[in-house]
Amino acid sequence: MKHTARYSRRRFLSLSSGLLAAPLLAGISPRLFAHDMSAMPQAEGHALRLPAPYKLKLAINQSAVCIAPVTVAEQQHFFSKYNLDVEFVNFGSSTDLLLEAIATGKADAGIGMALRWLKALEQGFDVKLTAGTHGGCLNLLTSKDSPFTRLDTLKGQTIGVTDMAGPDKNFFAILLKRHGVDPIADVQWKVYPADLLSVALDKQEIAAISGSEPFSYRLLDSGKYRLLASNMSGEYANLSCCVVGVSGSLARDRQPVAAALTQALLDAHSYAAEHPESVADAFMAHALNTNVKEVAGILHGQAHGHHAVGPAFVNELTQYVSDLQRVQVIKPSTDPHQFAESIYANVFA
């Protein structure tokens, strides 16, 4: 029953956010605020369509469920609508290599998780972020009968992760800090292979485990575990998890291409917010070890109707940078808003 409640609540958040995306499907370009529809100018349906076909390479983790709307985007003609000929460059789960590929010209653009990319971008990669694509993806789980019912009860405990630099580890470090638990001094983080995290939790070697989908969905669906926290609750339910990044040269020299690509990707996620089953069905041609029901359930639980561009997106990035400073990931000397503006490209201007 708890899992059903989680599904319904997260579905409500997704549908609520989806109201913001409706103009995208109607052909309105989100040039100013994703969250303030009155500030969005009215544009013709194909205002961003390129005058001639343009080929580009898009770096993604093609098997990631949250990327499903992008993987199958051309089946709904979201790329060809803007005269884009998109070739996918699959980098698996290596988000660091994906970002490097964009910066070095091996790919023109890519999609990744903000909480993974921001530290790398602080180092000076020539990549510009153009939009936030959706919310969701990150979950913190514990055993169904665990005594740890709130984040503050994790003080003095060990949390299992798959990557010490992962976006989930960064995010739950931020949440712990906000709940009075020092994520550096008050808890331990222990790395496990993904398939051993639940085993360690069952053995009570650790108090909680963090991860993304479909890992979390499957554990919750088993009925043996419960959700302790996620980025689909509180203020973070209204922040983008994944972002679009384009090469600096594309943003500077071919802004219309960057705008067309960004809009096509937002269109794809808007479609997924309204038609998760259709996207899940099409995704089966690319998916590994999953099924339509599982993918649709995961998409329902994420906020694919939530997009951010313009000042709204800069504000989201600013919040993330400030949060990462509090957990000693971003340098304390970095000005959060200035940094956010420096890595953002307003391709819709």
Automatic annotation (TrEMBL):
<dbReference type="InterPro" id="IPR015168">
    <property type="entry name" value="SsuA/THI5"/>
</dbReference>
<protein>
    <submittedName>
        <fullName>ABC-type taurine transport system, periplasmic component</fullName>
    </submittedName>
</protein>
<dbReference type="InterPro" id="IPR006311">
    <property type="entry name" value="TAT_signal"/>
</dbReference>
<feature type="domain" description="SsuA/THI5-like">
    <location>
        <begin position="67"/>
        <end position="277"/>
    </location>
</feature>
<dbReference type="Pfam" id="PF09084">
    <property type="entry name" value="NMT1"/>
</dbReference>
